[in-house]
Amino acid sequence: QVQLVESGGGLVQAGGSLRLSCAASGRTFSSLGMGWVRQAPGKEREFVAAISGYGGYTYYTDSVKGRFTISRDNAKNMVYLQMHSLKPEDTAVYFCAAKIGRVGLVGLDYTYWGQGTQVTVSS
């Protein structure tokens, strides 16, 4: 079993930045592909970004390319989502997610999920 705990959400003005963190435990971290998924009010969950076990591969949805960066620190069992140039449409609950391996990291097919952290971007 893998436990995921997100932190770093909050309220920020449009154009601002936030860094989300996700602490993982319960399995060899480098064996896990990690992702960030978000869900805006009244909308379905949306894939945001993903990273392979050793960080060699990263993936982003088009709407965040050039603004968000996913990274990981395997020594600390942490994954991060650095968000710049935030827009009101980025407002959502952001979930950290994990799965074994790196197949199918783009999308919502993850095995383990955190509880989410709220990001609110004001205009």
Describe this structure in words.
By secondary structure, the protein is mostly beta strands. The protein contains no helices and eleven strands. It has strands at 3-7, 10-13, 18-25, 32-39, 46-51, 58-60, 68-73, 78-83, 92-100, 112-113, 117-122. The strands form two sheets. Strands 2, 4, 5, 6, 9, 10 and 11 form a seven-stranded mixed sheet that branches. A four-stranded antiparallel sheet has the order 1-3-8-7, with no helix packed on it. β5 (46-51) and β6 form a beta hairpin. The termini are far apart. The mean pLDDT is 96.
How many strands in all? Answer: 11
Q: Report the sheet with the most strands, covering strand number, pairing sense and barrel closure.
A: 7 strands, mixed
Radius of gyration: 13 Å
Structural class: mainly beta
Shape: globular
Oligomeric state, counting identical vs distinct chains: single chain
Order of helices and strands: EEEEEEEEEEE
Total helical segments: 0
Helix content: under 10%
* Spatial gap, N to C terminus: 40 Å
Rounded mean pLDDT is 96
Low-confidence stretches: none
Strand content: over 45%
Features:
about 120 residues, 11 strands
Which SSEs are present, and which pair or pack?
Elements: E1 3-7, E2 10-13, E3 18-25, E4 32-39, E5 46-51, E6 58-60, E7 68-73, E8 78-83, E9 92-100, E10 112-113, E11 117-122
Parallel strand pairs: 2-11
Antiparallel strand pairs: 1-3, 3-8, 4-5, 4-9, 5-6, 7-8, 9-10, 9-11
